[in-house]
Amino acid sequence: MTTIPDHAHTADPVANAAPRGYAGHKDDQLSRLHKVEGQVRGITRMVGEDRYCIDILTQISAVTHALQEVALGLLDDHVRHCVHDAVRADEAEGDAKFDEVTLALRRTLRL
Asked: Which spans does this entry mark as compositional bias, Basic and acidic residues (predicted)?
């Protein structure tokens, strides 16, 4: 079992000063999240209107997939920027970033 450092569970104050890895895709990510938000509101309306269960489940599946795509984009940006920069700067910092990625994957995959 991998031990996750304490700082991997909370925001890194040093990293807060640096631009995020997704900075170049922030508008795209926000656009995707706004669409998801609209889809969730649509699902809420569907339930309120007593729509057919399978139609609601289909929409829930679409929202789930859309959120997974956002998560994969964020993970890709994190690895390509934050982890890459940390590995180049300092071996210990790089190891900590790899631990963060492992933790993020465990949470995402619910392992």
From this structure: 1-10
Rounded (10°) angle between helices 91-109 and 53-77: 170
Q: Indicate the pTM of the whole model.
A: 0.70
Task: Give the burial class of 74: count Cβ atoms within 10 A of its Cβ; 0-12 exposed, 13-18 middle, 19 or more buried.
Answer: middle
Task: Kindly state whether residue 3 falls inside one of the protein's structural domains.
Answer: no
110 — phi, psi (to 5°)?
55, 50
- CATH number of residue 94's parent domain: 1.20.58.1000
How far is C-alpha 37 from the geometric centre of its chain's CA atoms?
15
Report if residue 40 sits inside a domain.
yes
Q: Is residue 32 part of a domain?
A: yes
